[in-house]
Amino acid sequence: MTTRTLRWGLVGLGSLATNGIMPAVGRARHAVVTAGATRDPAKGRAFGERFGIPAIYDSYEDLVRAPDVDAVFVMTPNDRHLPVVLAAAAAGKHVLCEKPLAMTEADAATMVAACEQAGVMLRLGLHLRFEQFLTRVGEVLRSGAIGDIRALSVERAAPLSERSAWREDPAQGGGILYDVGLHLLDLVPRLLGSDYASVAGLAFPPPESGLGADTISLLLRTANDVQVSLRASREAPFSGSDLVVLGTAGMLRTGPLRWVETFTLTVTNAEGKREERLPACDLYRDELDGFALDLADGGTRLGTGADGLRLVRLAAAVEQALREARSIPLA
Known about the structure:
9 helices; Rossmann fold; 16 strands; alpha/beta; nine-stranded mixed beta sheet; Dihydrodipicolinate Reductase, domain 2; globular; 2 domains; 28% strand
């Protein structure tokens, strides 16, 4: 298997590109950035000068046609993913799209079909899939160390500094559900080995306000009857962002899951208390290298188009549950 270094074009040069992706590219083995695109010329010039990007375009149409771009990373506001993905596919460029893939199931299905027909790889930006500590949590749960799992709770907070106009606007896919919530919704089935059966929840500001929610609390039931409590917020400066799992024979608890160099996992059962520590991973670096590896061997280290479509359907059900203030059954 030959894994080649991919030449990336970044569409959307906001905080993720500036603070997340560009620093990670310097640490990646299989990624360089050769181009960027933004509708703001001043932002584009500043970005290009800061990071030494040779080509900055004022349209994604020009970027996807660039001969020195192998793959396109779509980081626009959530409601603008569709045209960029379709243009990249038409130009024969592989695509990494930030979650959510789209704002509607129809758009997501169109994007998946377009990439399949063009013969290009489509992957979804779910960087928590590369956190090996969370992989280890899943292994411990499946080992039976805490017995049959009855309940799981997890919270995660976004930095307060990530506020922007589009993140406040539901019409543009703003709101904490699409920012942080989708990461948690994607994580839990991988930890428990079971998908969701129903969802209910609360949001603030509430849906009738017309504003994107800054805090959501979701109560879900899995197909194997585990009770799941998820909370995501962008207005909690001192959130612990931790995880607790209760089982018939014990409990698993983690320390903070964000902004620490080392994660802690503690299992308490009849044998006593056992603690494990693992270093935090370099998520964006691993995501970029994982994309190159997926392209080389056909793997699914990153979320696939099918995963993206599933999360779009799930997000729609969550939005319905929040809007109607009732539990929504999930297929």
